[in-house]
Amino acid sequence: MSSLQDVLTGYSLRARLYPALLVALPVVALILITWDPQNLEAFWPLFASLGVPFLTSSVVRSRGKKLERSLLVRWERFPTTRLLRADDSGNPTIRERRREQLTALTGQPLPSEDEELKDSPSADQRYEAAVRTLIARTHGGQQDHYLLGEENASYGFRRNLLALKPVALIVLVVCLGVDGMLVPNANGSLRPLAALGLHLVLAGVWLLVIRPPWVLEAAEDYAKSLYDGLERLSQRN
Predict the structure, then answer these.
(1) What's the CA gap between 109 and 219, in Å, rounded?
(2) Which of 84, 116, 131, 161 could form a disulfide with 19 if both were Cys (CB 3.0 to 4.6 A apart)?
(3) Span 6-32, pLDDT tens digits
(4) CA angle in degrees (0–180, nearest 5) for 205-225-60
(5) Residues 6 or more apart from 36 whose CB is under 8 A from it?
(6) Is the dihedral angle over the CA atoms 56, 160, 41, 38 positive or is it negative?
(7) Cα–Cα separations (whole angstroms), residue 156 to 54, 152, 212
(8) What share of residues in the chain are helix, strand, coil (percent, to 5)?
């Protein structure tokens, strides 16, 4: 059974829990800036003891995986697959070296250009099987694959943030509504105005930054890092 420490470290923390906490940030900021923060101290032990972090991590992962399926429709295939295909627009010399190394690693030939043209879905399935073998060989916390783990967490973080975007925008709309009531009655206090400013900045980030191209960028960075790991494995052998 996983411990709380397992959930609050590594991939789960960065890719699953952090996005959920960012969604809740407007509400937390509103409370902390507007009211006495000491009133919240009694709730944290209860929050942790009820296993809320475990549930939050699981729900965020589920929403992220669901979004990933819709992103694949937009992308047509993962970058890890696209970088192996003959119709990819990247450097052909690098692609051919990558294919040779992956064939040597798996012991299975990759689809040819003709096979891609005749049956693209079947060819992609063979590519995906080869990539899964590569992932199994490069994941696991090895020191020389540290960057790969970082890129994987970055992709999960961005994907899950995008999955939570509708919830985050609803939370922000509610908070901005509360700001609209508090600011006119601030009686000289700058706290409600500070909360309003933060909420507006967060709204800009969610609307302008957290979009599908931002997630694709992380997926492409992960794919390149994965094939860098393939290069290191090939050099050892």
Answers:
(1) 25
(2) 161
(3) 555 566 666 777 777 777 777 766 766
(4) 45
(5) none
(6) negative
(7) 17, 6, 13
(8) 80, 0, 20
